[in-house]
Amino acid sequence: MDILRGHDVANDQDDFEYPGDAAIDRPLAVGYEERRMQVRAYNYWASLLGDRALPLIEDLSPDQMDDFGPYSVLLDFTAGIENPAIVYLGTALREECEIEGPIGHIADVPARSLLSRLTDHYLQIIANAAPIGFEAEFINQRGREILYRGILMPFSAQGDSIDFVFGVINWKEMASHALSVAIEREVDTNLLHNPPARSDAPIWADGPGADEDDDVLDLAGMEMPTEDAPLADWLALAREGAEKARTSEARSHAALYRAIGLAYDFALVTRRSAEEYAELLEDYGIKAQARSPMTAVIKLVFGATYDKTRITEYATALDHAATASLSVGSFAAYLAGYDGGLKALVRDERAARRADMPARPDKRQTARDTMKCATALDPLAVATDNDGLAVVVARREADGTLAIVGALPEGSDLGQRVILAAAD
């Protein structure tokens, strides 16, 4: 989630970092033009601020905005936040959601429509008192996979509280899986051999910080540390690669694979600099795990607050590289050439681990073996319910008699189900 703030908003946290935001993994297929609409919407909102904490709703006229007005919605929270009223709904958004005629409140929005996704986000803007950017994918009411990007911006009736939320959303339908895979592989191959000379762009391309110098995405040309360079130099290189993979406008599997490859290079160097590595872990407050040593490496490189699922996946990839005894500088190309890429490699590595594990004991057979040799119970010791009923396990003895070797607790749910089944 991207959070951008106005001036002097209550509970403002501008003085603090947002480590969670740094770990956002944005869908790859939402392109430059889609982002630009959100940037223009944010700049418009910021232009209405003046010296107030929140812009006034009287200054907003979505029906007169030819640019993003058709893709916008205005929610009125003055009657409560549980079911805000829909004051305005743009024509393009209305058509996408297949809404005909008037619509009064958010509860009236068709299920699984794009507009219904707002309920996942608008409560967050109330808590943060600042514009919130979001990006995700879902299956819409027509069964199509949709990528969407939006921004929600707070407005006030008097300037001191959030009474309205103005949202601007655009979207695109994803290509079929087969076509996506083919295109993705072709793009990744080109990027690996011809890194694009284009600058990084923050999420809000011409928002705050637009005048800062941009770096060039050219990981392939990074100078590798020397053999005897400090471990911190290797970590700095790996972290730079991770940051570029995370923030670059041109981010793709190629950039991610380079970053993971650099993380693996760092992991290899830690083997000959154990003391220095331990100091780095202590400095960053990261604990190494004996059962998964590569997890600490990934946390150092990508950040301890990075998405836990991805930390686990990347650590598994590094384990695979270590098992394969790959050399420094070779893992990125190895990943790119692996059939199915990173996901397939992680899947295969986990499957190999499961195959190497000892077979789990058959619980059913273990239970039967236990009952076969259990000591017979005294029938008088078996508890019964008010009707004198009990559910027991009996064993046929060598002389043909039945011995009670087990019993369910009196009044247990399982016992009641067994009685019902036996009575049928």
TrEMBL record:
The organism's place on the tree of life at top rank: Bacteria
Protein name: PAS domain-containing protein
